[in-house]
Design a protein that fits this description.
93 residues; alpha+beta; two-stranded antiparallel sheet; 28% helix
């Protein structure tokens, strides 16, 4: 989810996968969603686009991290997996 702000300043948490397009109407920004709903927000279109890109980048980074943690489990001499658990040092604990 990305955090945007309604025109009066209240936080609005939006699923970025539903964003179809973002347009500037002069004094505010309107986000059109996949279901046809439109939401006026205080951020500029470039800020909305940047928030969506940050969200998508974080998903890709998390997927890469999971692949690194689980892609190569330790194997003993007989070819059996010894243990399959995340590397806790990378997660701070």
């Amino acid at each position: 989810m990305i955090c945007l702000h309604r025109l009066r300043g209240e936080e609005l948490w939006l699923n970025p996968d539903l964003v179809v397009f973002v347009e500037s109407t002069g004094h505010d920004t309107v986000v059109t969603l996949a279901d046809g709903n439109r939401v006026a927000v205080g951020e500029q279109p470039t800020e909305v686009a940047a928030a969506v890109m940050r969200f998508r980048s974080s998903i890709i980074a998390a997927a890469d991290e999971l692949m690194t943690m689980f892609a190569s489990p330790p194997i003993d001499d007989s070819g059996r997996v010894v243990a399959l658990k995340p590397n806790r040092d990378r997660n701070g604990g």
